[in-house]
Input
Amino acid sequence: RGHVAWEPVWPGGGPLHGHPMGRPHTTSDTIAVVRKTATALMDHARSDAGRKKLRYAGVSVVFVPLGQLLVQLLKWGFGVHEVLAVFIGACILTLPNYVANKYYVWKHTSKDNRTTEILVFWLAAVLGTAFAMVFVYVLGRAVPEERGELAHAIAIFFGQLLGYGIVWVARYLFLDRLIFKATHQGAEPPPELLDELHHDFPI
Output
């Protein structure tokens, strides 16, 4: 006999979550739900929007370690304060990050408003950097070098990771709906959408 899980019910027959007794359903039902969820996720991953999100995550997998490496190199190799190191690292990586997101993630080939795109992308990067600098400062003070260089380096690492992580999803929505909204599947935008883009970002 297979394992069963209990779905709580009211005395009248309706579900009652949190009640120890209820209507039983088999393990196979749970497996079926898991399979449907996995199938839905796989279908989304194969869609244009899903592939774009995977490319965005892939770019982050590349640039986050690069940013960490730069911060640690500036901190321990050149004696730069960790907060300033975060800012310098962001300035160095902003332009290649923009290029990777524009041409690889969103496949946005239009040259219209490039100056405005770079400026707004840089401002978004500054916002993420500001969060990272705040968390790096706070965690750096909480775990000073006197407690050990390794512990201090780990605190800086998690401070930077937490700061950038907070704006990671917000930046995706910002880029997708505002900066690179003209093209979503690599196709050239219609004239009316280009007019809207020019209206949003006059240069």
Notes: The two ends are 71 Å apart (CA to CA).
